[in-house]
Write a structure and sequence with these properties.
Keywords: Membrane, Transmembrane, Transmembrane helix. It is a single chain. This protein is an all-alpha fold. It has one domain (about 1-129). Helices cover about 80% and strands about 0% of the residues. The longest helix is centred in the last third of the chain and has 28 residues, at about 100-129. It is globular. The termini are close together.
Length: about 130
């Protein structure tokens, strides 16, 4: 279980780092190249860049939690992520009509996994830190 929790912190930290850099420095590329993002226009460079900066902040918390690996920091990182990821999942589940059924299913599965994996790590934190 300890390895699972730390792996989630590392993987999600790396993911947030890459995502944050992409959003901050290449916002139109993110909007234009990621399937499903343009289902809910309009494009806003300001919003994408701000979200990129916030995502980088979350990456810092994840990476610190993975390095330090104590209960409080791990819980804060996972909860901070889930506070955004859960509403994101429900928003998209309510807006799946943007493209093909295949992309809608893929989006729903990816977003559900992106909530369930850290939620499972959060449930394990108490036992392993």
């Amino acid at each position: 279980m300890r390895g699972y929790v730390r792996s989630v912190l590392v993987v999600f930290g790396a993911y947030q780092l890459v995502l944050g850099l992409w959003l901050l420095f290449f916002p139109f590329s993110f909007y234009d190249d990621v399937p499903t993002v343009d289902w809910t226009p309009p494009y806003s460079e300001h919003l994408f860049r701000d979200f990129g900066g916030a995502t980088l902040g979350l990456a810092v918390i994840f990476i610190a939690a993975a390095v330090r690996f104590d209960r409080l920091l791990s819980v804060v990182a996972l909860l901070a992520y889930l506070v955004g990821a859960v509403p994101h999942l429900f928003f998209h589940l309510g807006h799946l009509e943007g493209d093909s059924p295949g992309w809608s299913i893929a989006l729903g599965v990816v977003l559900a996994v992106s909530v369930l994996v850290p939620a499972a790590a959060l449930a394990m934190v108490r036992q392993v830190t």
